[in-house]
Amino acid sequence: MGLPDLTMAEAKKLAAGPFGATLLRAAGSYAVPICWPKSIDERGGIRLTNGTAFFVKTPSAVFGVTAAHVVRGFLADRARDPRTECALLDSETKLDLERDLISIGTDADIATFRVSDSVISRLNKQPITGWPPRMPNVGRGILYEGFPGAVRESRGEREFSFGLCSGGGLADAVEETEIVTSIDRPSLVDPLGNGLPPEDFDFGGMSGGPVLAVFETGVLSWCLAGVITRSVDLLGGILCAARADCIADGGAVQR
Hints:
alpha+beta
């Protein structure tokens, strides 16, 4: 027996309370910023850039996932300055993308990399275990998360605080290679009490974050559906994600 259909008012009330907060916190437990310095000034201060990564555990492997353009951006910056280092969350968790890269998509904007269970645990994160990826039904629920650069704060010359943006909504389109969701501002609620983003909010930095398809089959469950690749600042925002069903269980990106 499926869960009962709700009116919009009932759904907003449910999402605005502990149920919605629990879902968003669960979704946020998978994602981590992937970052590196764009430049270092004469005083040793860093101008940082970041994307988002997350972790997956399949029947045969554990690996990290991000957007291919995030990896290519880092490799281009490292080619200009070989001293450039990539990290997950902070400088204590270095990531050698050249060494640990598993696969990078040719058409799909998805890349995968090796990561250990101990690193995931040290970051206080967990891998997505719902496998294989499944596509959401159009008009049904999804969750997403990432680390927009607009809310990243400098706490010192080499110390930064990252702001996690977790959200949910409906899948507006599920295409051959892409999932699209619009951010419907009149329907937004704030269960975590952090405030709602402005209409012109810059989502840059969320690329590489996971999109999860939510399924209602008597119990609520979710699994990986896509990888955020871009956003469009239109009518409050549109997020686009590459379909994750091109990722093999060993981490190879097959498109």
